[in-house]
Amino acid sequence: MAKENSILLHGLALKDATLKVGEDGTPVRAMLYMRVVDRAKSDENGNEEMQYTTVFVYSGAPKVIAKMSEIVEGDLVDIYGTLTTAKVPKKRVCPVCGSVNTAVGDVTYVSPLYVCRREHGLSPDEINAKLIERAEISNRVYAIGNICAGLDYNDKNGTGNPNLRYQMAIPRTIRVHDDTANVETDYPWVLATGYQALEGKDALRIGSTVYLKGHLRSKEQVKEIQCSKCESVFTSQDFPLMRISPHFTEYLHNCNFPDSK
């Protein structure tokens, strides 16, 4: 089967890149939150307004870390990479007793192969103009994989835009620096809307292979945690939930092909 898992991003660094250093003081991880174009939305007068989403970029590759370490809040950045999923521990401090609660959770992030700090020191108006001008390259995802879970369809009771949620197993095209060599697949979630959802609910089943062209869309997550020591319940900000939002789906194998109906 052909392999594809590639992402092209151009966006705004929302904060300085965060570095985690090892015992010898050498950076071993780099993290970055970027604002990229989600879509253009028209109002009732036909005026087009850009909608934005936040993506999480993470790497343990030394050359990539060096490039990411140069990025500061307000920079415009180009990134080419792959969509990666992992189970990671996240520490949360109980606001009542101060205990550290650690739990393993799922995170989806962009693993960069190429990073370029494109512009620095622009005004807010200049940044917005650049993002609008470069909207077509701001947030692009291309992926081939098998449907492995989900296929949850919601027609919004006929009152809104229907959606179809499913999980894909995408074979890796490269070795991610932070993972062990035996990790060969990533498992991102997909949220198809509108026509893509209507067509997909009949065409797809578990085991279907599809080729998607789309963009990343994120959603903030706040989790409810019960402290393991004092049993107090508190809320904590989690990693953003990043999903693929397809605008084109090619049905490759094990599908109820729409064209055959």
Layout: helices, strands, pairs:
Blueprint: E1 5-13, E2 18-21, E3 27-42, E4 48-59, H1 62-68, E5 76-93, E6 100-119, H2 124-133, E7 139-154, E8 163-171, E9 185-186, E10 189-193, H3 195-203, E11 209-219, E12 222-226, E13 233-237, E14 241-253
Please characterize this protein's 3D structure:
The structure is a single chain. With 261 residues, this protein is mainly β. The chain has one domain: Nucleic acid-binding proteins (OB fold (Dihydrolipoamide Acetyltransferase, E2P), Beta Barrel). Helix content is 10%, strand content 56%. The protein is built from three helices and 14 strands. The chain has a five-stranded mixed beta barrel. The protein has a two-stranded antiparallel sheet with strand order 12-13. The longest helix is centred in the middle third of the chain and has 10 residues. The radius of gyration is 20 Å and the shape is globular. 29% of the residues are buried. The mean pLDDT is 90.
Quick summary of this structure?
The chain has 261 residues and is mainly beta. The protein contains three helices and 14 strands.
- Largest sheet properties: 5 strands, mixed, barrel
Order of helices and strands: EEEEHEEHEEEEHEEEE
Radius of gyration: 20 Å
Q: Widest sheet: strand order?
A: 7-8-10-14-11
Q: List the uncertain runs.
A: none
What's the end-to-end separation, in Å? 25 Å
Structural domain count: 1
Approximate helicity band = under 10%
Q: Any idea what the CATH architecture is? A: Beta Barrel
Per the CATH scheme, the topology name is OB fold (Dihydrolipoamide Acetyltransferase, E2P)
Per CATH, the superfamily is Nucleic acid-binding proteins
Helix/strand structural class: mainly beta
**What's the count of strands?**
14
Beta-strand portion reads over 45%
Anisotropy-based shape: globular
Question: Quick one: CATH class?
Answer: Mainly Beta
